[in-house]
Amino acid sequence: MTLSAQVASGFAFVAMGLIALPLLLGFLAGLRPSGGQMNPTRPRLWVGLGVLGLAAVVAGIGWYRISGEPLLNRQIPFLASAGLIVVLLSVLGGSLIISEQLRGDQGRVEELENAVRDLTEALASSIELPPRTGAAELSQQRSRAGGARRT
């Protein structure tokens, strides 16, 4: 295998690896856990998936142009331009997906905090705290017990 073929193969592996995992995870995040249907109310998620899809198209075109050039010095401009665009689009798409996930997580955390607060208020009257003993009473109890301190 020549060096120019290795460069084209390496570009394809790196570019598709950069895109495949976030694209798959983002797609799975768009599924509803109960019914398995798509959730159309999450626009950042879908825009992020679209940007990752665009990055995949750019990576495919870049790989096609790189693999079509037999000389290594003619592959470098395609490698640089397509690689840079793929990385930028992947970062943009991934950040949109992550921001949507964080936004959804924030709503769930607020719901949990409200539920814990409501539960605490509901149970506060039925929970009795043990009485506190003062330092003087504690020393008297120790002296009656023989001064031995158990650990």
From the N-terminal CA to the C-terminal CA, the straight-line distance is 74 Å
Q: In terms of structural class, how would the helical and strand content be classed?
A: mainly alpha
Described by strand count, sense and barrel closure, the largest sheet is:
none
Number of helical runs? 4
DSSP helix fraction: over 70%
Mean pLDDT: 75
Q: From the alpha-carbon coordinates, what is the Rg to the nearest angstrom?
A: 30 Å
Share of β-strand residues: under 5%
Total strand count, please? 0
Q: pLDDT under 50 segments (min length 5)? A: none
Q: How many discrete domains? A: 1
What coarse outline follows from CA principal-axis ratios?
elongated
Order of helices and strands: HHHH
Give me the secondary-structure topology.
Elements lengths: L2 H27 L13 H26 L3 H52 L11 H10 L7
Task: Describe what this molecule looks like in 3D.
With 151 residues, this protein is mainly α. It has one domain (3-124). The chain has helices at residues 3-29, 43-68, 72-123, 135-144. Helix 1 (3-29) packs antiparallel against helix 2 and helix 2 (43-68) runs antiparallel to helix 3. The protein is elongated and about 95 Å long.
Give structural attributes.
single chain, 151 residues, 4 helices
Question: In brief, what are we looking at here?
Answer:
This protein is an all-alpha fold and 151 residues long. It has helices spanning 3-29, 43-68, 72-123, 135-144.
